[in-house]
Each structure stands twice: as structure tokens, then as C-alpha cells.
Amino acid sequence: MTNTDIANKLTGKITPVGETDTDNERFENLKQMCKLVSDLVTQISEISYKYKDSREFSIKRASDFSSDFLSNKLGITD
Q1: What share of the chain in percent tops pLDDT 90?
Q2: pLDDT tens-digit profile of 24-52?
Q3: Is 68 helix (H, G, I), strand (E, B) or coil?
């Protein structure tokens, strides 16, 4: 089971189906999922920014990787 599978299982379905009661529940799940994604992106961004000037290889590697992920995969720029 992947981390994505676990998050989906814990959060619940998020795709609306056109039935009000179900869609209300799924909308709450969607809000939870968006909050999770926001929190994760914030953590990744903190690594990118906090350690960008590190001289230690492993720390700089993490900073560079997270910065590349944010800009090239998510389109988030400084």
C-alpha cells in the first residue's frame, strides 16, 4: 500500500457523483485532502528555503530536490 493509498483511504472518496448527500460528504473529504496537500507542500517548501545555502552535500541535495519538485512538478516559483 502506498502513501497515496493510505491518504485516500483515510480521507475517503472526493469525486462528486451528482447526489447531494454523497457530494456533501465528498466535498468535506476534498477539503481535508486539500488541507493535507497544503501542509505537505509547506513542509517541502520549508526544506527548499531553509537549507538552500547549506554546504553539506546531503542537506543541499534535499533542498535542491525539493526546490526542483516545487518549481518543475508543481509550477510553484519563488
Answers
A1: 97
A2: 999 999 999 999 999 999 999 999 999 99
A3: helix
**Going by C-beta distance under 8 Å and a sequence separation of 6 or more, which residues neighbour residue 23?**
16, 17
Cβ neighbours of residue 76 under 8 Å, at least 6 residues apart? Answer: 41, 45, 70
pLDDT at residue 77 tops 90:
no
Which helix (H) or strand (E) covers residue 12, if one does? none
Question: Model's pTM, two decimal places?
Answer: 0.88
Q: Quick one: three-class SS letters along 20-67?
A: HHHHHHHHHHHHHHHHHHHHHHHHHHHHHHHCCCCCCHHHHHHHHHHH
Q: Which residues contact 27 (CB under 8 A, 6 or more apart)?
A: 16
Calculate the alpha carbon distances from 73 to 1, 33, 48, 66 in Å.
23, 19, 14, 10
